[in-house]
Amino acid sequence: MDDLIKVNFAEEYPTVSARELYVGLGIKTQFRSWFPRMCSYGFTEHVDYKRLYQKRSTLGGMQTMVDYQISIDMAKHICMIQRNEKGKLYRQYFLELERTWNSPEKVMARALQLANAQVKELSWQCSRLDGQIQEQKKQIASLRPKAVYLDMILHSPSLVLTTQIAKDYGISAIRLNRLLHEWGIQYKRREQWILYAQYQGQGYTCSTSVEIRRSDGRLEVKYQTEWTQKGRAFLYQLLKSKGYLPVVEQQMGIMETAGANLLLAFSVSGGHGEEVKEAHAGGSE
Asked: Taking the complete model, does pTM exceed 0.85, yes or no?
């Protein structure tokens, strides 16, 4: 009785193969004529049965055959229509199957299975969200030094020398002044760098005087250009567009390549001694 016909439990409700039931009932009419006649008793496709195609081995070789997965309720009605001993046997089998399927134990087992599937799906979604959060944290961590550098620029009211700005980029003041000259930002007059007309009046620089006492006792006054924080932010965007990044952002690039732990040790230990020396070497500019 248990092996009377294979039952498919993969769907929401159990189903059986119409062809297997057809063979089991010993129907003499051809299947392609018999099944449409059974459907005429009030059964609806996609509700009581679903069409499917299967490859099967026949005397003529492999052929694609049409089959149907039918509900247990439809199978019971078909068995009752046959009015023979096999029909009665199969109908009793389906009635017993329904009683078992609807028993409290089976209902609870299916509910538990559904709950476990939902928990598994929720766990997967949480894991995916956690992965997204961790990735966002990494992105925020990589952007934080850049934000700190810009925040320092925007919130500092003091003037800075070209030497100090150059130091942020690990280059000398001589090189930075030369680059700004090549890019048409400034020109030199009487040993002082002055912005071209289109950049003047923007609040980028201030001209300050410095008193220098010579060895013979003479007092001389030199004029030098100092950058405001607005000018410093202007240089940041300009240099970035030319491929020059502050040392802190260069380090972040190394961190993203070599790994957070490796660069953290590098950042703590330093690593710009030569850059500082180069910046000091250009202090006179």
From this structure: no
* pLDDT tens sequence across 98-155: 888 888 877 777 677 767 777 788 888 887 887 788 877 776 555 555 555 566 565 5
* Residue among 49, 65, 38 nearest 16 (CA): 49
For 68, phi then psi, to 5°, come to: -140, 135
Q: Hey, what are 257's tokens? A: 């390549």
Per DSSP, helices labelled H in 156-246 are 162-168, 173-182, 229-241
CB 230 within 8 A of CB 204: yes
Residue 146 burial by Cβ neighbours in a 10 Å radius (0-12, 13-18, 19+) = middle
Given a contact cutoff of 8 angstroms between Cβ atoms, the answer to whether 282 and 166 are in contact is yes
Phi/psi at 203 (5° precision): 80, 25
Residue 93 burial (C-beta neighbours within 10 Å; 0-12, 13-18, 19+): buried
DSSP reduced 3-state for 114: helix
- Residues 6+ away with beta carbon under 8 Å from 200: none
Strands lying side by side in the sheet with 15-17: 7-8, 15-17, 61-71, 49-58
Contact (CB, 8 A) for 164 and 247: no
Q: From CA 237, how far away is CA 126, in angstroms rounded?
A: 40
Going 70 to 74 to 75 to 79, the CA torsion angle's sign is negative
pLDDT of 175-197, one tens digit each?
999 999 999 999 988 888 999 99
Mean pLDDT score, 270-275: 43
Contact in structure between 90 and 4 (CB atoms under 8 Å): yes
Report the DSSP beta bridge partners of residue 205. 227
